[in-house]
Amino acid sequence: MRRGSTMARRSSSAAVVPMIVLAAVLTSSLLPAAAAGGGAGASFGNWIALNQQSYAVNAALYAQKSAGEGGKTLDTNLSAAEEKKVVYVVDPSGGGDYTNITAALADIPDGNTKRVVLDLKPGVVFREKLFLNISKPFITFKSDPMKPATISWNDTAATLGKDGKPVGTVGSTTVAVESDYFMAYGVVFRNDAPLAKPGAKGGQAVALRLFGTKAALYNCTIDGGQDTLYDHKGLHYFKDCLIRGSVDFIFGFGRSFYEDCRIESVVKEVAVLTAQQRTKSIEGAIDSGFSFKNCSIGGVKGGQIYLGRAWGDSSRVVYAYTEMGEEVVPIGWDGWNVAKPESSGIYYGEFKCFGAGADAKKKKRVGWALDLTEEQAKPFVGAHYIFGDSWIQPPSVTSGGQAGKKGNQTEAAAAPQAAAKAPTTAEAPAAAEATTNVTAAKAPAAEATNATAAKTTPASEAKNASATESAKASPAAEATKSSSSAATPK
């Protein structure tokens, strides 16, 4: 990172003192606000205010940092890794450096400090079950969005492992990423296990699990049924992606921003898009939540789609400028097992959404879901929500780099149509909010922020997941359910 003159730094430091004080004051107020009493209405109001306070804290901290660095806030570890980029071609026919992804990953050393781009041969289906461990950051899977490579496996939670016991939801994953700074471009992640029947146990089938922080996916497809995308933990950015599934198919306690994505149900029965696990009982989860902007929601004609249900006492999901198809049920949301969602800390909101499924909300949405004001929506409608100014880069960074071990230099071709939509977020954080949906109004301007995501060990997270996993079962058959209530677990 470039530094200004000593005098400039001192001047800037003095200028941001009030902001530091503001951040300290607001930070000290967050916990009491969340715990305050005063009845259900007062408690819900406190949680609304908490999100706006948190946004002000992050804005102040960013101002403190950027003032001394000319606004250049790109993560230093990331910058160093990109400067040492290497590219390897993975081609099962033998025309590259490796014939499978597993072998390529095995050759990446623990403690890796280089951006390693695995260029997957377009159109190829790789039947592999992959695990990127925490010691191998800066890995990119790259293919062609017009003819993507597919990584596919078919385990479910009921699949028996080597020890003869079911592998569980975590173990069902096709591609598990526990390392930081992961990127993917133009790749299909799929779990092609048969769709679980309504009410069946052990049908969870994860296509992609993200546990590492600062992960970005562009023009990717994440395809499956129940529990397709385990947005487990960390800061994640999804741009121009297609996500398909049936029940709770975007779930976990990541802090993630979905932009210009298509979210699609694959079943005619009741589908639930999100099961966000924001809770006070898991350290770090209280700062999590899913934000969708300029997305579209739809599915099988005649089906029913719930926007989300609460996997945790303080689940948080926001949709902004999003087109909602007629399949979205009028009630919108479900509190699941939370007895009093209006006082638990659940935060479900919509802002300037449109379409048949959004129009229905005017009279029939649940009373504890929010029709957000512009001020309430502001914390969620830009990459600042995931502190993206410091790490989000356009997919063009997958180009170039040092040749692989066989001399296969891989220069990316001119970006196809999908790549041309590279996020303004990465190239000019201050202008990130220029992105719009074809028929949506412009979102408010983003305010850049910066923070470091806390990270616990994968082992502790697996324990947390297993402790709550038993409660997150497939919904029972909807034939016996009221039209005003989302599916409940067996």
Automatic annotation (TrEMBL):
Pathway: Glycan metabolism; pectin degradation; 2-dehydro-3-deoxy-D-gluconate from pectin: step 1/5
Alphabetized UniProt keyword annotations: Aspartyl esterase, Glycoprotein, Hydrolase, Signal
Feature: compositional bias, Low complexity: 409-490
Region (Disordered): 396-490
Coiled coil: none
Pectinesterase catalytic domain span: 89-388
GO biological process: cell wall modification; pectin catabolic process
Catalytic function, reaction form: [(1->4)-alpha-D-galacturonosyl methyl ester](n) + n H2O = [(1->4)-alpha-D-galacturonosyl](n) + n methanol + n H(+)
Membrane-spanning intervals of the chain: none
Catalytic residues in the record: D248
Pfam family, one: Pectinesterase
InterPro entries found in the cross-reference section: Pectin_lyas_fold, Pectin_lyase_fold/virulence, Pectinesterase_Asp_AS, Pectinesterase_cat
EC number of this enzyme: 3.1.1.11
Broad enzyme group: hydrolase
Gene Ontology molecular function terms on file: pectinesterase activity
Keyword Lipid biosynthesis included in the entry's annotation: no
Keyword Hydrolase: yes
Signal peptide: 1-36
Family, per entry: Belongs to the pectinesterase family.
Its job: Acts in the modification of cell walls via demethylesterification of cell wall pectin.
Entry protein name: Pectinesterase
